[in-house]
Amino acid sequence: MRRALIPALIAPFLAVVPSALTAHGGVAAPEVVSLRTDDEQTLEASFYRPATGHAQAVLLVHDAGASRVQLEPLAEKLSKQGFGVMTLDLRGHGASKTAKLDWDKLSDADKKSTWSATPKDLDAAAKWLLAQPTIQSTSLSLVGYGAGCALAVRHAKSDENVVCMALLAPNAEAYGFNVRADIQTLEGLPTFVVTAKDGDAERMALEANASSGNPYVELFISPPKLGTPLDDKSLPAKVAKWLADKAMPKKGQSPK
Prior knowledge:
Elements: E1 16-17, E2 23-24, E3 27-28, E4 31-36, E5 42-48, E6 55-61, H1 72-80, E7 84-88, H2 108-117, H3 119-130, E8 135-145, H4 148-158, E9 162-168, E10 173-174, E11 177-178, H5 179-184, E12 191-195, H6 200-210, E13 217-221, H7 235-247
Parallel strand pairs: 6-7, 6-8, 8-9, 9-12, 12-13
Antiparallel strand pairs: 1-4, 2-3, 4-5, 5-7, 10-11
Helix pairs in contact: 1-7
């Protein structure tokens, strides 16, 4: 059983722009947050503040070459579900781009080097998120998409506050991260994998379960007619329900 740790007190390292009065589909517009990493990178993120205190937290991680906008529909659905949600632009991506670091302008070698440092981005986001007064400090769920799944899995290995994670279209290897090997070190951590039929991710999930006496990976095969899992308009509801069942079990019910 994974043991939750109370995060250490951290110094303030952000600026928050008050949320707008407008809403998206009934969800209050998120607050724009500025995060500072241990290696002095400044990142922009969005925080969907929960309506009530002690909400469970979810951190969403986009694909390489994308931005936090990629997972906005899912973030809004999770916010409606009652989670406190953060999406962030990884270094060199989206609003976190700088004149010195722009993912689109990097060589393949520089992309691999930059990606190897992005775990620091998740560390900064998770610390800030779990320190919020409206967030339960020992419950963090992770959602990754594409290469972002590699970062989610790697973060789960070092953060015992992680209670479950969803991996959407993961790759068995991404920019030097061996997801196939890393996921098997997380035996017992509820994991939801969404992927196409007969792909590396399906085999990776089946291998992880086969290596465990207690299967912990739930596999969902996305419809073959869709280009990516994000093309499935029902996916946000599926992921939100799965995460809620694991992170927010009903009174008297143990996590599935």
